[in-house]
Amino acid sequence: MEQVEAVFREERGRLLAALARRFGDLDLAEEVTSEAIEAALTRWPVDGVPPNPGGWLMTTARRKAVDRLRRDQVYAAKLAILQVEADRSAPQAAGDDLPDERLQLFFTCAHPALAPEDRGALTLRCLAGLTTPEVARAFLVPTATMAKRIVRAKKKIREARIPFRVPGPDELPERLPGVLQVICSVFTEGYAASAGPYLQRLDLAEEAIRLARIVHRLLPDAREVTGLLALMLLIHARRDARTGPDGEIVLLEDQDRGRWDHEMIAEGRDLVVAALTGGPPGPYAVQAAINAVHDEATDFAGTDWQQIVQLYDVLLDLDPSPVVALNRAAAIALRDGPAAGLQLLDELAAEPRLQDYHPFALARADLLQRLGQVPEAITAYEHARALAGSEPERAQIRDRLAALQQTDAMETVYEAAGGADGMLRLAAAWHERVMADEIVSHAFHGGARPDHTERLAAYWGQALGGPSVYTESYGSEASVQRRHAGNGEHDEMNHRAIDCFDAALADAGIDDERVRSVLHDYFAWTTFNTMYRHKTEDIDDGQAVTQWSWDGRQEAAES
Questions:
Q1: What b/e sequence results for 219-234 when a residue is b if at least 16 CB atoms lie within 10 Å of its CB, and e otherwise?
Q2: How many CB atoms lie within 10 A of CB 87?
Q3: Is it the case that residue 206 has pLDDT exceeding 80?
Q4: Model confidence at 103, in pLDDT bands (50, 70, 90)?
Q5: Do 384 and 362 form a contact (C-beta atoms < 8 A)?
Q6: pLDDT tens for residues 294-312?
């Protein structure tokens, strides 16, 4: 099945481009391409993948297109006219001038007759095979808006009879920026997937690099083409170090730079020099230079943040977009400190394009955390988590949020539960629940001493981060543990003891779910811990009081 999926990834764009060129209609090309792939999904698992899978798909798709045209003679006549005009206007390719039919479709989708916002959207949908929601996330717009753009662009190509061809040399300069923007958008989706279980879609990133190499071969003297190729190579060189063994995100400061592709970095650096030579730089060349500075640093601490900020200043003049301003603010935070970065981010907060842009919320949360503004950081992290598209991004934010919540303004569980008064209320409620339970009450055998709730509250308080006030006046420490942790020899008693404790939490008015979770885990842990035996002599009187904190939730889950 993986082989079949690999074939589909490789052949879909090529097939769509060839069919669009042949019939002059994107909708028809998309429909018969999908039908050919569906046929392959039915046939190939039974018959096996054919020796020439691309040829099989092309033959099948053409037959389906012909069948459809035979059923609709009016439609067929219109397409025939379009095809004749396209053939008449298309220059004849010579040698290696047209290395891939997909390039024709790239220039068609980036035609100046299309609205600027429609060009990249249509190309991502048709050439990269992204779903409409994925394209929408890439452009930071609602899915419904993106669907309308794609339909509008296809209609414009059909009605304006835009030919499916590579422009002539005189047309290329004005058509090129749209093509480069599309290739960059494909790479961006591959670098950080807008949705799904993986951070990176390496197939998309590598496809974008391949297409950029084609354009670079066609236009070797176009410095922005060189700059874009350099940018993608310098970023893609870090691909193996960007995720951990389980697909989790590894931040730049934590990456193993030995795993970077240094051969690719060397190629990218050479291209940066070429892109910056011979005149004022373009946006892609400056972005490539920024990434070259990152890749040249031996470690994160040695990064030349002053140079990066200066390059962002140049880039912001060339491309005054809120995303560039966000990245510049992040660089200034690393050069001048989090307060300086946060001030700049707050100035960008009203930008519409950043309202649903999760890197903005995440950057703000990080700076707030570094400044010790914990409640505000938690709110920002929660907003970032709601906006994140891929599962690794959400997991990263969940982990950072959990770590922050564990150390939120309350230093210990003891304080969170109300300190000495809270522990005393809980111990009294526990005692009342226990003594009313005919099974758990047997743990106390001859009953309890009058001051046992005070002693139990003091012991719990010390274990949960409170002051060290426990004394030997209520028997040995082991005796306190044995009496109030239940009877380790009887599972039913232990389970009922935990039920009593859950009820006691409510009785004591402890309603913060995080606090309840930790207290429950603590009590369950002590109740079921194997060192709590029925006989006092089985317990080590010299053991230290087990300290329990917010981090104890994980310990409890593991035990």
A1: beebbbbbbbbbbbbb
A2: 13
A3: yes
A4: confident
A5: yes
A6: 999 999 989 999 999 999 9
- b (16+ CB within 10 A) / e for 400-415: bbeebbbeeebebbbb
Provide the pLDDT for residue 524.
74
Task: Determine how many CB atoms are found less than 10 A away from the CB of residue 96.
Answer: 9
Report which DSSP code applies to 383: H
**Residues sharing a CB contact under 8 Å with residue 280, sequence separation 6 or more, in sequence order:** none
Whole-prediction pTM: 0.60
Left, alpha or beta for 248 (phi > 0: left; psi -120 to 50: alpha)?
beta
| pLDDT tier at 441, thresholds 50, 70, 90 | confident
Structure tokens at 251: 């931040």
Return the H-helix or E-strand segment holding 498: helix 491-507
| Contact predicate 465/518, CB 8 Å | no
Angle, in degrees to the nearest 10, between helices 283-296 and 305-318 = 170
pLDDT of the residue at 30: 83
End-to-end, the C-alpha distance of the chain in Å comes to 40
* 394-426 pLDDT tens trace: 999 988 887 777 654 445 778 878 888 888 999
Which DSSP string do the residues of 221-271 spell out, in sequence order? T-HHHHHHHHHHHHHHTTGGGSB-TTS-B--GGG--GGGS-HHHHHHHHHH
For residue 81, give the 3-state DSSP assignment.
Answer: helix
- CA gap 524, 501 in Å, rounded: 9
Q: Which of 504, 454, 496, 456 is nearest to 480 (CA)?
A: 456
Residue 196, phi then psi, degrees to nearest 5: 110, 180
Q: Provide the pLDDT for residue 431.
A: 85
**Residue 393: HSE in the Cβ half-sphere, 13 Å Cα cutoff:** 24
529 — pLDDT class (breaks 50, 70, 90): low
Q: What is the mean pLDDT of residues 524-546?
A: 51
C-alpha 517/C-alpha 88 separation (Å) is 74
For the chain, state the CA radius of gyration.
Answer: 32
Distance separating alpha carbons of residues 133 and 118, to the nearest angstrom: 15
How many other CB atoms are found less than 10 A from the CB of residue 555?
14
Grouping H, G, I as helix, E, B as strand and the rest as coil, residue 358 is helix
Q: Which residues pair with 11 in a beta bridge?
A: none
DSSP β-bridge partners for residue 249: 243
Pair of tokens at residue 436: 């009313």
